[in-house]
Predict the structure.
Amino acid sequence: MKRRSFFKTGLGLGAITMLQPLKGATVLASSFEGVAAGPIVLSTWIHGLEANRAAWEVLAKGGKALDAVEKGVRITEADLANRSVGIGGRPDRDGHVTLDACIMDEKSRCGAVAFMEGIAHPISVARAIMETTQHVMLVGEGAEKFASENGFEKAKMPIAEVKKDWKEWKKENKEIFKKPIINHENHDTIGMIAMDSNGDLSGACTTSGWAYKMHGRVGDSPIIGAGLFVDNEIGAATSTGLGEAIIRVAGSSMVVELMRHGYSPADACKEVVNRIIKKHSDLSNLQCGFIAIDKKGNYGAYSVYAGFNYALKTASEDKMVDAGFDRNW
Ligand code: SD4
């Protein structure tokens, strides 16, 4: 199903008590939260289904959550049809596709790349930074140099179709700064969190960020604590949406911290969304969403606006779930 039509039909079920499903609506699940026994993997958006299945190949064999999340999001990074992640991503206003990613494991080790160009799998570069250097984050040319020196696959970006779209956009947007609209049409970041059969948690997040952003702009996705956070004693969370708003509330780390203080994953996501809402006087087009799991396998999600959903995979389930939300568009 095309994203546009998916969003039109995906009715957020956080509002199930107030709304009857619209005629023709695709009702994908009966709740925006739940609990799983055994390994579990959750990812943002519909491309998460395929990514989860790749992650599941690792989890089903008793493999590590860290290997699962890396393998999972690489599927999305390689998907040429995805306009917000990896090789098929949209460029910034100057025509550069700049990639952001981070990864975090059960030992609270983490790695990240930001503002990196021309490398096919930023998530694997982030993992290599985590595992082979003393640093957490490399950006721009430094990240590219590290990736090249370590033999990471290169890719030419933007791909032809995306370049054509960008040229069109350029013609229509001559001003130096015209605020690009960030909404449900241009969000596709993949954030993935998983628990393995050992009960260990890891997460990964990867994106080309806000389409037609200013050159040099970095969002929440590569920032540990904003776009992703894992605390193996408590749980894991990741985000999608307007990175600037998510960074302001240290979004994903806050979700995990609230779970530490007894919130369920869904309630923790909701509380952080409420903070974002409180801190912004203009909420027009300000979509942000979080997904979270805790150590007991409880999971949940919440977003500012309807339309955000996530993919869930366990031993018995493989489905999309609509997140709870604060408001309709
Ligand atoms: C960013 N959070 O760069 C990312 C964008 C995003 O779905 O999530 N898109 O701000």
Notes: The CA atoms of residues 291 and 301 lie 4 Å apart. The chain has nine helices and 14 strands. The chain has a mean pLDDT of 88.
